[in-house]
Structures are given as C-alpha cells and as structure tokens.
Write a structure and sequence with these properties.
heterodimer, A: 69 residues, B: eleven-stranded mixed beta sheet, 17 helices
C-alpha cells in the first residue's frame, strides 16, 4: 500500500465482497476511484499528533452549568 | 395587503398583525399557497404540499385567536419542515422514493413544538437524498433550484427549505445540519440559517445521518424570526439522549442591536483557504460594518482548521454508513448513485480510523474553545463561492479549482465538529446577483450572542430587503 494507492484493487475487491457490496463493473470502478480519495483523506488524520488524547465517545458540549432540577 | 407583501413579511411582523386582528391566518395561508403555485414549477421546494390541511388549521387558528386563545408569536404562521422531520399522519420520505409511502405515527419533537405553538404546516420540503450532500440534488423528487437563478443549486442538504424561505413560499422553514446543511443553503439562497449548539434542539424523530453531528435548526429570512423559532423549538427533550438539560432563554431579548465591545475573531486560515474574491470583499466589508457598530474585530490564528475536513469526513462517512447499512444492503440499487457510493465507501473506514478522527475532534474542539477564551465570536465566510450550477462537480474558488462538495463544506464543517452554534446571515451579492453569507459562531449554548451580532449586522444593512426575481 502506498500514498498514491491507499488500497489496491485486489484488496478493494476482497473487502467489498466481505462487506456485501456488489454492482456493475462501472459502479465498482467508480466506487474504487472514490474510495481512494476518501482513504487519502482519512490517511491525513495520521498527521495530527493525538498522543495522550482520549477520543470523545459520546460528544456533548459542556456548558458548565448545572442541570435543571 | 398585497399577497406578495404577506409572503415576504417576517414571522415577527405577521405575528404582530395577527395578534391585533389586522390579518387572518386564512389570508396568510392563502397568500402562501398562491405563491407556492406560482413559483413551485421553477423551484421544486416541496415534496409534499398540504393545502387542505393548512387551510383547515388556519381556519381553526382564526377561530382561536378571535376567541382570545392566542398561543404566542408563531400562532397562525406558515412553516415548512425538511422532509426528514417526522410528522404524524403525514408522509416523511427523507428525500427517497424508498420511503415514498412512509407515514410516521407521531410528530418529531420539533414538529410537535411548532404545532403546540399554533404554527401552520404548509408541507414537507425537498432535500438532498437522506441529507447526504450539500447541493440539493434529488432525482427521486426532482432537483432543487435557487430562487435567484434557477439554473444554480439551492444548496443542501436542506435545499427546499432554503429556496422556500428565500422565495416567500414559507415564513419559517427548518433544516438539519451535519456538515453545513442549514448554513449552506442559507448562504446560497440569501436567508438566515442557524445551526444551534448540539443538544439545544431535539433530534428526536428526525431521520439521522451522523448521530454525533446532526443539528436541527431554523431557516428564515430575518434574525428575529430565527430567535422566535428557537423560542419554540429549543429545550430539553428526554427522548433525545444528546439533549441538554439547560434553561432556555428568551432569544428575542438578545436582539438589542448593541454589540459595542463584542470581541470578534476572524481566523486568518479562513482567508488563506480557496476563496472567491467577491466573497472575500463582501465578508471583509461585513467585518468592517461590525467594527463600525462597536465590535472589536481582530485576526486570530486557527491552524487546526486545516484538519477539519479529514476529521469531519471520516466521522460523517463512518456514522452515515453505520446508520444506513441495512438500507444499503436491502435497497442500495434504489439510491441516488452519488449517495450510494458515499455510503458504500464509508463502510471501508476502519474503527481505528474513526477513533483517530474522534481523537482529532477532541483536539480540534480544545483549540476552538481556546480561541473563544479570547474572543466572543468567530467570523468568516459561510461559503467560499456563490451558488454553482446544478450537477457541476468542480468550482473555481479564487485561483483554485476544487471539488464542489469540499468547497461548499469548507467553512461549515468546523462547527459540526465542535457543536458550537453558528449562523449564516446575508452579507452581500455577487456581480451576477447571487447571495453571499457571513458566518458567525459562538460558545456552546451561547446562541444569544450569535443572534445579537447577526441581528445588529442585519439591521445595519439592507441585504434582507432584496428579493429574488421570481
């Protein structure tokens, strides 16, 4: 796997089959093309230094105010 | 009163006349139905129109108001709901023929609160299929069109809401905003769109797209109407796990027009990003206007802005694909092809990448909160461009050609990540007559400051007085 091809066509075909994704040849070609763009964007996450950061699992902005009783 | 004048009056203005008995709800609804008949062929704002039901509700409202049973400022006011807000006894398609005959048994919380306030539902509004796109494309019910130029997009996903409010088809409309779907059509159609704080308005009974980033909110023509709508729909709802159990202020009380001393930060990175020169000029002029009104406008540094797209895209795609996975397996071939492709692509995102995005989100949120330690609001363009042509895949933003989806969500995504309240208010027009929006974002649950600044700016300018040539 390289930066230019975040997923090989063979890995894509195998994963798609495992995920139950199927379609015409043109559809799968388009999905593969789009997916490479998506995974390149996802790969950009690795540039963020997240050392020691716990993920927000249930995201609710805190207002710093007590709840209504 | 002339029918067109009725259709372009604000909810605040109509409410004052209704309370004094100077206009009847029937007159208001008839004027809007006439306006819809005239403009709908060009706009395609509605999926389901409810003329008989609306007239019956208007007659009841007329009787109630005459009998002294006035329910408040939205009694007798025509509203339209994006067609993913579930409505009891009225079909709710979420923009897909798959749900063409789906009739919910009960109202979502927002619809129920509008109904209790006496607002009159005119119909269910067109939307990008399953809210998964920023342009207002929908092959099942027809694409949405921009009232200022029907060859251009209305924006999405709440495109029908944007066009309906801008064209005077409805006084108040609603949208849901996961990556910008309230603010994008608001900016492109020249109206006001408020994405409240996550947790401020209940999501109960809305078809979800991405649970952690879905925000329902009002889309209207004036900031006062956004405040009036928020007075009705905001507040704790035990049926929504993310709903905040916090007091709700009277949002109209915040509309003082006084912003002296308000500190507004304009992130430098917003203006370094791809940006159309006309939009840049209009937004800079708006910042100057805010300064002239007494605000202190300063440049701030927000380097984390560059991470917004990767964090937001990863979370949105993973959550949307989880949300629609069963539907995709069952009815994938019936989906709009671009929506199907996005949903399928999201299935390839690993749990580790999703959690990495959530780690990034925590960092992004901290950085944005730090900025709001020093300023009261963050300001910038809502959109880097004006409305592009329908189905165009690339746009020119300044000197850069970028994907339409990436461009339209460039400035809106950050506040879906943080959940901060953010508003788009009209701040100008391009040489070709297309609207431009100013985005103002504030601290969590401080919609009042966002509304106060937007209202002060709106009242000091005349952009709200322009009408589309329909």
């Amino acid at each position: 796997m390289t930066d230019d091809a975040p997923i090989s066509r063979q890995a894509f075909d195998e994963t798609a089959a495992r995920l139950g994704i199927s379609g015409s040849g043109a559809h799968m070609d388009e999905l593969y093309s789009q997916l490479r763009g998506v995974l390149s964007g996802t790969a950009a996450l690795s540039a963020i230094d997240v050392t020691g950061i716990e993920p927000d699992m249930a995201f609710i902005p805190a207002a710093g105010q007590p709840p209504i009783s | 009163m002339d029918e067109l004048e009725i259709c372009y009056m604000s909810a605040g203005g109509l409410g004052r006349l209704l309370r004094q008995g100077e206009i009847s709800p029937v007159e208001i609804v008839e004027a809007h139905l006439s306006r819809i008949r005239d403009t709908e062929p060009a706009l395609n704002s509605f999926i389901t129109l409810l003329p008989e039901e609306a007239l019956a509700a208007a007659r009841q409202a007329e009787r109630d108001i005459r009998a002294g049973r006035y329910r408040g400022p939205l009694h007798g006011i025509p509203v339209g709901l994006k067609d993913l807000f579930h409505t009891g006894g009225i079909r709710t398609t979420s923009g897909s023929r798959i749900f063409d005959t789906f009739v919910p048994s009960e109202d979502c919380t927002v619809a129920a609160r509008f109904r209790e306030a006496g607002a009159i539902l005119l119909g269910k509004l067109n939307m990008h299929q399953f809210a998964y796109g920023p342009t207002g494309e929908n092959p099942d019910y027809g694409h949405m069109h921009n009232p200022w130029n029907p060859e251009l997009v209305s924006g999405g996903s709440s495109g029908g809401s944007g066009s309906a409010a801008a064209a005077g088809q409805c006084t108040i409309t609603t949208g849901s905003d996961t990556g910008g779907s309230i603010r994008i059509p608001a900016a492109l159609c020249g109206i006001v769109g408020l994405k409240p704080t996550y947790g401020r308005v209940s999501r109960h009974g809305l078809t979800p797209l991405a649970w952690s980033m879905d925000h329902p909110g009002p889309m209207v023509r004036t900031v006062e109407d956004a405040a009036l709508a928020m007075n009705v729909i905001a507040g704790y709802d035990p049926q929504d796990v993310a709903s905040a159990n916090l007091p709700v202020p009277d949002y109209t009380a915040a509309l003082t027009s006084d912003i002296r001393g308000l500190r507004i930060g304009a992130p430098r990175q917003y203006f370094d990003a791809p940006l159309d020169p006309e939009v840049r000029r209009s937004v800079n002029a708006a910042l100057g206007q805010l300064e002239a009104l007494g605000a202190e406008v300063r440049e701030v540094d927000f380097p984390e802005f560059q991470d917004a797209a990767s964090i937001s895209t990863t979370m949105l795609m993973a959550e949307a694909s989880a949300c629609f996975r069963d539907l995709l397996a069952r009815d994938g071939a019936s989906l709009y092809e671009p929506v199907r492709l996005r949903l399928e692509a999201g299935l390839f995102i690993s749990a580790a990448d999703y959690l990495r995005a959530q780690q990034g989100r925590a960092l992004f949120d901290r950085a944005a909160r730090r900025l709001l330690d020093d300023v009261d609001l963050l300001a910038g363009p809502t959109e880097p461009v004006t409305a592009p042509p329908l189905l165009q895949q690339q746009v020119l933003a300044g000197e850069q050609e970028i994907g339409t989806v990436a461009a339209l969500t460039q400035y809106t995504r950050p506040y879906n990540i943080t959940g901060f309240p953010a508003i788009s208010v009209p701040c100008g027009f391009s040489a070709e007559g297309m609207p431009i929006g100013l985005q103002l974002a504030g601290r969590p649950f401080d919609e009042e400051t966002v509304l106060r600044a937007a209202h002060a700016y709106e009242q000091a300018t005349e952009w709200r007085l322009r009408r589309p040539p329909l």
